[in-house]
Amino acid sequence: MVVEVVTNDDFTNPGPIAGIEKFELATDAAQRAIELQQEWQQEHPGEEVFVGHGYRMGRWLHFESEEPEELLAWAKQQDDSLSCCDQCGTKISDEKSTFRRLGEDTIFCREYCAEQYEQENTPCTQCYEPVGEKPYWMNGWVFCSEKCSDEYDSLHEDD
User: Fold this and answer.
1) How far apart are CA 7 and CA 5, in angstroms?
2) What is the pLDDT of residues 75-129, one digit of tens each?
3) Which of 83, 86, 95, 158 is the most buried (most CB within 10 A)?
4) Taking the domains of the chain in order of start, what are their residue ranges?
């Protein structure tokens, strides 16, 4: 018997022994597969239970057995290849549900992160430095500080 870690375009899971479980990260699925392997071996002593991984393209395919360490190494490699959110650093396993900025290579795991990134990287109207986490708003303009706002006002009093 093989406890399989199945991958497809949307998720990885450790196979149907205990029902299908979905994991966003391959390491979580691999760890669960190894737990299932150990549980099965305890319940059925003497029966060989292996772990393996693969992509079965919607069909039943035979998986080669692996040592748990090999499965974990493969899973880590899979997870390491995932993109990370440019705001919070979260691994992004489903790029179909991401947010991007037009004309930039940035990628975000959720709308909140995209908005935070936008806010923190908006340039100050006066000094052009990023306004940071707490922008100062005055008359529709955004500034990095009250000081920049005052400087802008003094330069544009006649406008």
Assistant:
1) 7
2) 999 899 988 999 999 988 777 667 776 677 888 888 888 888 888 888 889 898 8
3) 86
4) 2-81, 83-121, 123-159
